[in-house]
Amino acid sequence: MNPSPPRPTPQTEAVTAAVQQAYANYGQAASRWMDEFFAEGGRIFCGAGCFGCCNMPIRLSLAEALVVRDALSAEKLAAVEAHARQVIGNARMAPDDDTYVRRHRLEVGYCPLLDRTTGQCSEYAARPTRCRDTFSAFPARYCEEGHWESLSTREKRQYARDVARTPGTDGELHYVAPLEYLSEPVWDTAAEMMSQAFGVQVWGDFWVLVTLSARADFMAAIELGDAKAAWGAAKRAGLAHPMILEIE
Ligand code: SF4
């Protein structure tokens, strides 16, 4: 268990401030887009208490992981680390990507930052981009693991027809595509800030990166731009796996 996370440094503060600004910009752009979408009769089914997608794997940057790290209590960091260790176990055992995702949703399970009594995110202000830009144009059951597999061939054909004529989708999936495009500047900002502040970029699994960002040896290596030493620190922590950690 990680004793205490490293304190923010000028380097990490520059990165997290830029990410927070990018979140704010995205929030304004998304809000404007939604106002127009609703005015034209579009529908979004997500709302407080709906958490069907909070058991999906989430990819992010170390820049975003640092925002989450700085918001979490020691107790929540410990819960995130326990989740990260299940993620690693799944990455080691899963024979392919589809199995990895299915097992993540069914066995690794819901994000430890989800408040299961209210169904709400307990760290809403710090949540990563993927949690900010994933919206459904169909009812929540369509987002649940196993729903698609439970449909008959006729129902799957009907789904394809329904998605194709639903405003806001990309025509193939029931998620609201323009909101994902609007969040792209957040990813760009994260990439640029990591390169500027650290000289390396780090991408990977949400819970693994938050856990690593709370380790002094990992962050010391990152702040020196030493990708090899950072990988070594991740390995010592038992959190290095090419499927869920990229340091470049
Ligand atoms: S951070 Fe919040 S919104 Fe994102 S998966 Fe976890 S509980 Fe859900």
TrEMBL record:
UniProt xrefs under InterPro entries: Puta_zinc/iron-chelating_dom
Superkingdom in the source lineage: Bacteria
Protein name, UniProt field: YkgJ family cysteine cluster protein
